[in-house]
Amino acid sequence: MKAWGRLLRLSLAPSALADVAAGAVFAQGGFHPAGRELWTMLAASACVYHGGMALNDWSDREHDARTRPDRPIPSGAISARAALVVAALLLVLGVALAWSVGPSTGAWTSVAAAGAIAYDLVGRGPVLGPALLALCRAANLGSGIALGLLHGTSHVGAPVEVQYAHLVPLVFYAAYVFGVSRVGRMEDAEDDAPIEPAPWILLALVALVALPWSPPPGLALSAAQLDFDSNGHLLPVVVLRWSAGLLALAAAYAPLRLVARTRTWTRPLVLRAMGLLLRRLLVLTGSLALATCTLDGALVAAAILAGYPLSFALRKVFPPS
């Protein structure tokens, strides 16, 4: 079981689920989890995400045999054939579940799955690899936004139509994942260039701080505006807006401090930076949910951030990278 948990990268499960939840509440401002759609999409996201992780280990089995012989496949804990079968089943099941919810959620999830397969099988390289990973995570968030547009609840009157504002967080999220992925390539010195992750860490931190300021679709913010949810609770928009921004800013402090204090980067320092950046995926999506300035958004943000200690505990048994 430990070997399968390592293969599937179970410590990152909360971040994959958080993409869908944050996107769903961001789309219109609210989402009530009474229906099956949210839970179906959470399952779809988990299947595609962990299926991609299993396929990644299968594809890297020869490289891992040289650089990480303790990984599940080269160590013999899991056979390459079993890993491939599980990866294929999870990817197909995830896409099928997403299409059962709707065409738009199915399309976004299909993009995420296709990006994962392309990365695992053919998409390596200093630029193409991180770009494909960024596409996968942005599409996962996009599937949540599509879910919110289909089945979410509006806090601004009529249901919100598709807007350019729905794409803004996808850009910031993709930039964050691209920066983190560039740092990840330096864990095993996959590029010929010297180890210098600082610019990519800074790119990720800029995206982290900027994401919660993505304009919620259909919600015009001002210092005097107040928002009412369906139960009549009064939520000061400005307080929630700034809370989201300060949350992201606080999360950026530790990685920024590491960059400021490091003159010569070593592999252990790169691993430390990767751990910090991967754990902030939950803060990233949590701050986006909180930035909707609605009660539903605040509740989703709280649920996402509650997954932080779980992810932190799981990483000690199932390392995330």
For the sheet with most strands, the description reads:
2 strands, antiparallel
Overall morphology: globular
Q: How many structural domains in the coordinates?
A: 1
Q: Which structural class do you get from the secondary structure elements? A: mainly alpha
Question: Can you tell me about this structure?
Answer:
- The protein has helices at 2-8, 13-28, 36-59, 61-67, 80-101, 103-121, 128-151, 168-184, 198-210, 237-261, 267-290, 295-315, and strands at residues 29-30, 153-154, 226-228, 234-236.
- With 321 residues, it is mainly α.
- It has one domain.
- The strands form 2 sheets. A two-stranded antiparallel ribbon has the order 1-2. The chain has a two-stranded antiparallel sheet with strand order 3-4.
- A hairpin with a 5-residue loop joins strand 3 and strand 4.
- It is globular, with a radius of gyration of 19 Å.
- Mean pLDDT is 87; it is low at 220-234.
List keywords for this structure.
single chain, two-stranded antiparallel ribbon, 321 residues, two-stranded antiparallel sheet, mainly alpha, 12 helices
List the helices and strands and how they pair.
Blueprint (H helix, E strand, L loop, with lengths): L1 H7 L4 H16 E2 L5 H24 L1 H7 L12 H22 L1 H19 L6 H24 L1 E2 L13 H17 L13 H13 L15 E3 L5 E3 H25 L5 H24 L4 H21 L6
Antiparallel strand pairs: 1-2, 3-4
